[in-house]
Each structure stands twice: as structure tokens, then as C-alpha cells.
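Figure-free illustration: sequence to structure, shown twice.
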Amino acid sequence: MNKIIELEEKLKSTKDLFKKVDILNQMYSLTKSSDYTFAHEIAKKTIEIARKINYEQGLLTALDNLGSLQNHLSDYKDALITLNETLELSRKSNNKKIEALALNKIGIAYKNIGDSKNALESYFLSLVIAKKEKDKNFEAVVYNNIGNLYRNLGDYPKALDYHLSSMKIREKIEDLKDLCASFNNIGNVYSDLEEHQKALDYYEKGLELAEKTKGVKSKITALTGIGEIFLKLNEPVKAIEYLEQSLEISSQIGNKQNFSINLGLLGVVYQKLGETDKALEYNTKSFEISKKINYKLQEANCHLFYGQIYFDLKDYNQSLENLQNALVIAESIGAKSLIYKTHEAFSKTYEAIENFDKALEHYEKFHSLEKEVFNEESDSKLKKLQISFEVEKAEKEKEIYRLKNIELVDLNQKLIEAQNKLIESEKKSMFVATVVTTNHEFNQPLTVLKGNLAILKMFSEGKLNEKEIRILQNMEKSIDSISNILNKLRSIEEPTLLKTIDDINIINISKKK
């Protein structure tokens, strides 16, 4: 907040319109996650000033900001207008970074209005630039979005493949905040495949990491995912707990898309609990929001759920009408899993009114599409992907373990070497102390002996026989020999050992080291 106040002061004090644009773009960055209304006003004002002074770079940044915010607020039609202008301007100014960003965001807008063909085209154009510019972070973002699109299309092997690719890059570059999104999206794929435990594992990883990194959007997705899994596991109380948390956060940050998804899921929960009125109330709110923001996938889901509720109420005309609406939207956006679910609901409704020809027709379509989505080839691809990923993960862990062992061995060797050096140092210190002590203790009596011997020789000169003279000479030689040994010991820098006949080590004083 202090930073925003500081920027507002700068904005008031400067008359330079170019600087004003730069300051406003900075203010947008600080407010985009906390105050969408204020961020929207800033972006619009920045674009207005930048156009007026023909400030191309400032305009490009502001347009990209606005397009991103419009996507986030589910204003997809407006987002496409803004982002296409951003794309055109970025190409004109040869700004590859913003060109890639704009293409990716255009892909998101197309995906959410159900135009899968244009979405994929935009994503892949964005991916080409990311690879060419060697931007690993952004490459992971685009892989993630392509995975989401293939999931909507019911192509789960491709969805999982792209999400795993995104996750691997994020793990490698330690992009923890976006790694949450990868965990959640892999959870979404496993949820669609009805692999509840695997989905729950990934959602819980996503939630834990989102809380650590304060990733609000990822936290919403994880909470929604966990709530939906508990719904599928027939644990409605737990499902409500997680879905209401997600709903509250979505409401706080103005995320209309997730807000409508959570309302729809809560409607399903209350229908399971037998509270039909409440279920209809939640589904109607979800439908109204989805229609308003042009979120086709959730709009179709709401029609399908209306069809199922009216079926339970035995209002078959209303059921068929809503199922038809769901089918038209699902087919327009190519959502295969939603299409076959709608055909299944049609089949049950026609069977209830004893129109068996129509019931069979829709059942055959349901069965055919379900097989197409969950065919043997698709199942095989998924298993291969899962096995490859698990093998790669195991190999990575094995390599980490191997490297850790090498590090431990190396560390152990260094410790042994250090210990040996310490022992040698202690030995040397002990040797030096012994030599110093020996010299100190021996030199004094030797000096006395040598002095007394000199006095004896002086007073006995001419009075000793030959044998007595030899004795005195031997005594003098012994004293000199002891002094010589002490001098040699004192001059040794690195003591070495010699083995005697009895294998007892003695200091080698024959040479210096």
C-alpha cells in the first residue's frame, strides 16, 4: 500500500506524460491481484494517455494489462478486441515477448468461448516464440494451457502429456507458484478419468504449495477440485466444506468463472442431499453468471444439470429442452465428455417416456463417444504416459540417491583425511613437546657433567695412568654423543619411524625431513 501511495504522489508531481504512463503501468502491476475495479480504471486511463502522446511501448504494456484483466474477469469478447490490438502493435514494433503473451491470452479467450480451433492455433504460435526465445518459464505456461484445452476436448492422453511437460519444466526451474497450477491441472485430468485418489493426491499437493506461495487462484482451483472429488466419493459434507471455501475466495477476488463453477457443483451436492429447491437455486445462479460472461462450458453444464433435475421431478419436457440446449453448446465447443454425458441423459429421459427408438439412438451415440474418449488406444497412451512419468521420477530419485551417496562417501573420505591430519598433528605436537622436554631436562645435567669433567682433567693432568685417561676420554665422548642426539632430535621437522627387530617403532634420527 505504501508503494501505491508513493506512486500516486509521483503521478501528481510529474507533468511529463510519458512518465505518467510508466507510473500508471507500475500501479496496475501492484493492484491487479487485489482491486480489479481500480486496476481496470488504471489500465483504461493509461491507454488513453499513451494513445494521446503516441507512446508505443507504454501503450503496448497497458493494452496487454487490460486484455489480461478482461480475461481474468471473463470478459472474453472485449479481451479478444484488446488483445488483437496488442498483437498487431507488438508485431509492428517487433516486441516478441508481448507478441507471445498476447497470442497465449488470445488462446485463453478463444478456449473459454468454445473456439478450440483458434485457441489451439494461438497457443502453438505462442509456443513457437517461447521456444525460439528460450523462455522456459513461458513455455511451461503455454504447455499448461494446451493441456487444459485438450482436457476440454476429451483428449486425456494429450492433456496429461502437456501438463506433465509443463510440470517438469516448472520443477526444473523451481517455479513453485506456477507448479501449483500444474498439480491442479493433472488433478483435473485424473478427476475426469474417475481416478479419485490420484486426483486427490495432486489437488492436495496443489493446495499445500498454493498456501506456501500465497497463490490465490491456484488455491481456489485446488479447493474446487477436492470438493468435486468428495462429491464423487459421496461425501457431501466434506464437498460442501471445500466448495464453500473456494466460492468465498472466488467472490472476494472477483473471479466469476470459478465462482460459477463452484455454484454449479454446490447445486449438484444439494441435489444429492435431496434438497432440490436449493440445488435449482445454486444452478440458476451459476447459469446466469456463465451466460453473462459467455463461459460456454459451464453454461452447457448448467443446462445438463437442469435436464437431470427436471428428470428427477418427472418434468420430461423441461428435461429434454435443457438437454438439447446442453448438446448444442457442447457440440459447438467440441466438449466430447460433456456431449456423451448429455446423450446418456437423453437416453434415460426418452426411455422414461417410452420413446425407445430415440432412447436407443442416444444410447448408441453415448456409447460410441464414450468409447472414443476412453478407447483402448487412449487408455494405452495414458498408461504409457503414467509409467514413463513414474519411471522417470524413480530414475530421478535414484540419481539423487546416488549423488547423495557419492557426496556422503566424499564427505566421509574428507572426514577420514581430516581426522588423520589431526592425529598426525597431535603426534607431531607430542613429538615436539617430548623433544623440548628432553632437551630441557638433559641439557642441564650434561652441562654439569661436562664442566666437572673439564675440572677433573685440569687437576689430574700428569697424574693419571693410561687406563684412567681412556676412561675420561670415553666419558667425554658419551657426553658429546648425547648432546649430538639431542641436537638431531631438535632439528627433525617431520618425524619418521623405523622398526626394530622386535617390531618396536623408534624415531629415525639418521636424516632430516
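We now fold a second protein in the same way, so the two outputs can be compared directly.
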Amino acid sequence: MKKIANKSVLALLLALILLLQPQGMVSADQKNLQSEMPGGIISARMKYAVTSEEPERRASVRSNGSQENYDWDCYGSDYYFTKLSKQEQTLYLQMDAACKELLTQSVDAAKYTMGDGSVEYATKKIPIGNLSTDTIKKVRDLFYYSNPQYFFLNPALVYASGQTAYTALGVYPKFADASKRQAETQVVKQCLEEYKAGVQVSGSQAAMDQSIRDLICTKLKYHPAYKNADPIASDPDYTQTIYGALMSGQTICAGYTKLYVLLCNAFGIECVPAISKTHGWNYVRYGQTWYAVDLTWDDADDATKSYFRVSDSELKSADTSSGDHTVVPQWQALVPTATDSYHTKQDEQSLLTAPQIMIKDTPKGVKLTFDAPDGDIYYAIGTDVNLSERQAVGSVSLTSGGMYVVTAKAVREGCLDSKYTVAVVQIAEGDATISTIVNRSKNKIRLSYQVSQLCEGYEICYASDRKFTDAKTKKLTAKSAVIKGLKKNEICFVRVRGYKTDAYGNYYYTPYSVVKRIKVTK
């Protein structure tokens, strides 16, 4: 495809922009039909970029390590991610990386000039390869609703074709400046902590979910501007994000849907969003069973029935002719199915005990083992949350340097899944090598060593047998050492590794070097 180069092409693109502009939350006719039951989804606005201005990448003023990333990632759902093709997953992950940069680092949003001369703020450019615009929009929508922690995103989707084809996710102008966005991030984080403190975590998973539902419906009200008047496409109250819900206590279905996704997943309850052309709702999973949840309708002043933990057929029975709960075509093969409504007797199902994660230091890195009183254990490491494919059988070894967030839960048919157990495992970056090892004086061995990455110090381990059954260790900061007290004609096995310490003073290590063998001859 050629780059945008002349006025006729620009005119065509402007026409496309007008066609793709959102039609508000619901049309006037639809508003009359569903006046009793509010909606409020603004579909993605595809905007065509002519030029872009990427900000200078400044140094982060906050940590962007894996622990902080996990602190935010735990609010989202990767259920839909696991159902995408490899190409779609790559785009999804690039969207996540671009948003995470804005969430955790001191970086201004990028600035794009549209075909009509207007300006749109968005994430950095995300390459799209040969993916179609329909696919890009599908991945964006799945990502946008499954990751409510990115409160600064708006419904715009920047797009440019040609040799430098890319997309970018729109950012509300209020959050374009790094310092202002970071200040608001702290406010959002504090609000989320207050919400989480209000959730009753004792009892069954179902009871905890009920507590989340009650909390949201107590704190939120449907935005009157959308219930009593025509939609306002400019969205000055940030109704398409958790930000508006947290700041004002007023939102529409997008806010209800996203906040429910966020809180459920934060407490280990798998919850995903679903959208139609005009509305948003959720699915929540207990054990192996999914239930439909529409908190917007459940919280409506004039609601005559419950829409919490119901079947698909119950939910759709109350729909208007606009198909409020008819999933958009791009999602239909992906959303869960709710065949039954929740019955009180299921409260009698026991909540399994959460598993233990045992972490053992090994010469090559770290070994993980899992234990639970009953049930099968499923685990995930890092961003891999497809638990159904990772059953814990035996031990798991980690050998590459980095920080790993390990989650595990217990599962058994007929019982509610346990809560998640979370552990953070660190392996120091770098490869250790012993440069020299000699026996130059009586009963002593001298050696020098190094680690390919910067470390705080070194640990020397030596023994009289290759299995290191009688191993002795010593820590030091010098790159050479002397081992004393050996006996003549004794065989000595030596290995070295680097270490670092975390904020609490705990040591974590690189893998050990190759073992060196030397005979004490003096």
C-alpha cells in the first residue's frame, strides 16, 4: 500500500473517518426501547494518522521491574489472549508493552496528526505487519476491556498504512503529560486499595464475589447524562474507563464491566468482559462453571430482577430489539458460555486450600515444587496465565536470570478453585566463570573468577567430592580468593557464583560456574 500523498486520498480518508465515528452509546430510537435498562459502550474510533511525534524516552522515576508490573497485571484477564492466533497474540503483547510503559514510566504520550489536521494523543507506534484493520480492532477491543488497569486509554484507535504501517491506542489528553499521569496513577492506586479493603475475603469464592458485586453497586451510580439525555461522544467524564467510576462514582456499563473485571481478578476470581454494539457485561467462573453478570442492569433503579450470576438465556430474555446481550461478531467464538444460573446450594461447595510453593536454591538456578492437601495444582510463571495447560507434576526448574512471578491454585471437580498463592522468585543475571585456580603454597588454593553481569559479591563453594555433600561456602566481594586448611593430596572441587540482595537484604544468585577440580600437591 502507498503512503498518504495527495488531497484526493486525504478526502477519502476523511470520509472514512466520518463513517467510523462512534454513533454515541445508543441511538435515539434505541434509547426509547431500552429506557428502563441503560447501556453505554462507545466502539473504537478508527482514526487515520498522517504524521506522528514520538516523545523522548526519559528515564523512569519509578521502578518498572516485574514485581510492579505484576502489581498491575493482576487486575487484568488474559483469558481472551490465550484464544488468539500467534500473530494476534504478538499484537496484543505489543499493546500491553506500550500501555505498561505509560503506566509505570515517566514518558509522555505520543502525538499524532490526523488526516483532518486534528491531534490525537496515543501510545507509541505498534507495528501491525499484514493484519487487517478488522483484526486490529478486534485485538484492541479484547485488550481494552480485559485490561482495566490502563485507565488513561480512550476509545480512539490510531492507524497508518503504507510502508510504515502501525497502530496506537488513544490516550485521553488529560493523561498525555507524564508527570500529570503519574500523579493520577497514584490517586487511582489509592482508590483501588480502598475498594479492595471493602471486599469480604473470608468464606467461599461465591461469598467473596457477592461482596465485590455489593461493593460496586453501593459505590457506583449510572451516569445521569447517559440515562436521561443523548450520549456525549466526547466523554468528558471518562465513562469508558475505571477512572471516571473511581473519581466521581458515576459511570456507564463500560465502567461497571471494567471495575468488576479488575476486582474479581485481583482476588483470584476469573472474570472476563463481553460487549455488544451498545452494551457491556461480564462472565465469572466458579470451578468449571461460567455465569453471566450484568452489574449495570443489576444496579439499575428500576430493575425488576437480578442479573447477577445468571445463564445466557436469562440475560437475553430481557433484551430489547437492539440485542443488548448479543456479542459482537468478532467475539462470538471467544466468549464463555453460561448454561445455568447460580443456585444457593452451590455455596455448600468447599473452597479448596491454596497450595504452597516451595523454592529451593540449586547450582543451575531455582527449583519450584508445589503442595496442596487435595486437588490438582495448576501454576503459571510470569505473564503465562493459561493455567489449564500447566498442571504441576513434579518440580519446575528456572535457570535464566530475571524476576519470576509464580502463581498457583488447587482445582478439583465439584469444588471451588482455591485462592491463588503468589511467590516472587529472583535469579541474578550473568554467567559465572573461574578464570584461574592453582595450588601455589602449602594447603592453600588460589583462584580468580568473574561474572558477566554486574553483581554485589561472590559466593565460593568447595568440597572434597563432586556432589558437594560436605560443601563449605564463603561470601566475599573481591574477584579472587584463597581457600585454606586443605590437606596435601586432597582433591578439591570448586564452583563460584555471583550474588545480589533485594530490598529486604535477601540474597539471590546467578547459576554456579562450571566445577573446577584441583589436587592439593603442596
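Summary for the second example: The longest strand covers residues 491-501.
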